[in-house]
Amino acid sequence: MNLIKNVPLLKKFIEIGYTIALIVILSVIVGLILAFPVKWLWNFVFGELYTITVLQAWALNVLTGILLGQKSTNK
């Protein structure tokens, strides 16, 4: 651990890595929590034909975010 204290650039890279990992983990958790209402609504509407799991609802959220997401223009 003394090597990390002696090399400030290495310490900065490790801090950035921890921050990125935390953001990714929190995004996954929030995405999975938001997938539950999609699952419940889908299964309520289409339950007799086809039911989906939480991971499928999460994938559906991601897909609709990609297809219908807001486009930003800098004009």
Itemize the secondary structure elements and their pairings:
Layout: H1 2-6, H2 8-46, H3 54-68
For the termini, the CA-CA separation is 49 Å
Order of helices and strands: HHH
Number of beta strands: 0
Beta strand %: under 5%
Mean pLDDT: 87
Overall tally of domains? 1
Helix content: over 70%
Task: Give the radius of gyration.
Answer: 20 Å
User: What is the approximate shape?
Assistant: elongated
Largest sheet: number of strands, sense, barrel closure: none
Determine the structural class based on helices, strands and strand pairing: mainly alpha
* Spans of at least 5 consecutive residues with low confidence: none
Q: List the total number of helices.
A: 3
Molecular structure report:
The protein has three helices and no strands. With 75 residues, the protein is mainly α. It has one domain (2-63). The protein is elongated, with a radius of gyration of 20 Å. The N and C termini lie far apart (49 Å). The model has no long low-confidence stretch (mean pLDDT 87).
Compact overview of the structure:
With 75 residues, the chain is mostly helical. It is built from 3 helices and no strands.
